[in-house]
Description:
Elements: H1 38-59, E1 70-73, H2 80-83, E2 91-97, H3 104-109, E3 113-117, E4 130-136, H4 138-145, H5 149-159, E5 160-170, H6 172-180, H7 182-185, E6 187-193, E7 206-212, H8 218-224
Membrane topology: Single-pass membrane protein; Single-pass type II membrane protein
EC number: 2.1.1.-
Pfam families: Methyltransf_29 (PF03141)
Amino acid sequence: MFFSSLLDDHRTMGSGLAPWPARSTSPPPRLADFGYSNEMFEKDTERWRRRVENYWNLLSPKIQSDTLRNLMDMKANLGSFGAALKEKDVWVMNVVPEDGPNTLKLIYDRGLIGTVHNWCEAFSTYPRTYDLLHAWTVFSDMEKKGCSAEDLLIEMDRMLRPTGFVIIRDKPPVIEFVKKYLPALHWEAVGTSDFTSDTDQDRDELVFVIQKKVWLTSEGFRDSE
């Protein structure tokens, strides 16, 4: 999940970065270069810590300690989703939108890994696919760009391993749109959360958790007998 295994503590000395693991939640020195204050950073870090805790509560009936290994935050912003997972035994790819603030430097400063991508295009999954995709307002952003949300769903299905999970955090119309395609994609709903059950939730957002099922044909069943 993190670069800390690649960067010795002595390389952070003189850069103003805290040693690992404190650097994942410490305000980076160049935060102001992106228009953020330390207070804004700390609030964002705490907000996503609570949100990730809520996600795990929704996922808990379906996962064990080793169920999730490779995760992707499809709209990483400051990387607080990934930072909130530092105690989990997971690897997180943080994706920064190519048309938004390029906060990748801040993500690197936090000891996290990431890349820049336009979700109107395909994402290279070499050398790994993912056990969980986190899509925070990604579909709303696609709508503004005029790109195909159906194509994005197909791309997410391609990137996702069988029995993997998708967490969509977006506006209610987006959730309803995605629900229409669950049967075709062989995805099933795991749980939902709104602002009445998640006090940290924005009032115009819902959380929808989905699991990808294993595709099995009738011939497959007969061959396994």
